[in-house]
Amino acid sequence: MKIKTKTIAFVSLMAALANVLSVPPIAIPITLGNFPTEIHFTQLPILIAGILGGPSAGLITGAIGGLLSSFVILPRIAFIIGGLAILGTAAGFFSKRLRPILACISAWLVQAPYAAVTDYIWFTLFLPKKMTPEAAWALVGSLLVKLTIEVVISSALAELIITYLKKARITL
């Protein structure tokens, strides 16, 4: 398989953008119960990479695009990389049959079970102060709602951006 320089540059740019979009002041701080978090749009460049570059571009963008939030912002949560890689890969596969907004939301439906299980494992096994299973599921439920909101907004933005790029005849 021959990889174009243009594709490598695109994936690198989208991965860098995903990392930048995960940090304040671009990330908007909110509180879910007693848990401080933020609304961010890390998913947007990952979804765009998957749709425009295909599943492998989405996979690589998701994996690299999750490095900052996995090891700097939220130390030692390597699960994030896997989830974002799944999101980008699934967006690439779904984009072959669905319009961008539906491909993005479908990709989230593939990633959501992974996010739920790995977050539960993180909260009950790896946190210094482990949570009870009930508290962990309550927090996971809140995080899934937050992530769903982020993905829906990112999906709508991806639809607009990709439609514009196609009208302008900008391709990989």
Would you kindly provide a written description of the structure presented here, covering whatever features stand out?
The chain has helices at 5-20, 43-53, 55-65, 67-73, 79-94, 100-126, 133-167, and strands at residues 28-32, 35-39. With 172 residues, the chain is mainly α. The protein has one domain: Orthogonal Bundle (Arp2/3 complex 21 kDa subunit ARPC3), CATH 1.10.1760.20. Helix 2 (43-53) packs across helix 7 (133-167).
Tell me the strand percentage band.
Answer: 5-15%
CATH topology tier name: Arp2/3 complex 21 kDa subunit ARPC3
H/I helix tally: 7
SSE-based structural type: mainly alpha
Largest sheet: 2 strands, antiparallel
Run of helices and strands: HEEHHHHHH
> Strand order, biggest sheet?
1-2
The overall strand count is 2
CATH class: Mainly Alpha
Poorly predicted regions are: none
- Helical fraction equals over 70%
Second rung of CATH, namely the architecture = Orthogonal Bundle
Radius of gyration: 16 Å
- N- to C-terminal distance: 15 Å
Helices and strands in order:
Layout: H1 5-20, E1 28-32, E2 35-39, H2 43-53, H3 55-65, H4 67-73, H5 79-94, H6 100-126, H7 133-167
Antiparallel strand pairs: 1-2
Helix pairs in contact: 1-2, 1-3, 2-3, 2-5, 2-7, 3-5, 5-6, 6-7
